[in-house]
Amino acid sequence: MRQILLGGVAVFRESVRDRVPYSIVVFAVLMIAASYLMSQLTAGQDLKIIKDLGLAALSIFGLAIAVFIGVGLVTKEVEKRSVYGLLTKPLSRAEFLLGKFAGLVMTLAVNLSVMTIALYAVLFYAHVSASPGLRASWEAPAVDPRMLIAIVLIFAELMLVTALALFFSTFSSALWATLLTLGLWIAGHFNSDLRNFGAVVDSAPVIWLARVLYYVIPNLAAFDIRSEVAHGIHVSASHVGYTLAYAALYIGVLLTASATIFSRRDFK
Amino acid sequence: MAAAIGVQVVRDRGWTPYEPANAVLWLRSGALAKRLALGFDDLAADVYWIRAVVYYGGRRQVAANRNYEHLYPLLDLVTALDPQFKAAYRFGALFLSEPPPGGPGRPDQAIALLERAIAQDGDWEYFEDLGFVHYWWRHDYISAAEWFKKGAARPGAPSWLLGLAATTLATGGSRQSSRQLWTQLLGDVDSGYMKAQAEHRLKQLDAMDAIDQLTIAMQRFRDRQGRLPRSWQEFASAERLPGVPLDPTGVPFVVNPATGRIDVSPKSTLWPLPAEGGK
Question: Does the ipTM surpass 0.85?
Answer without folding.
Answer: no
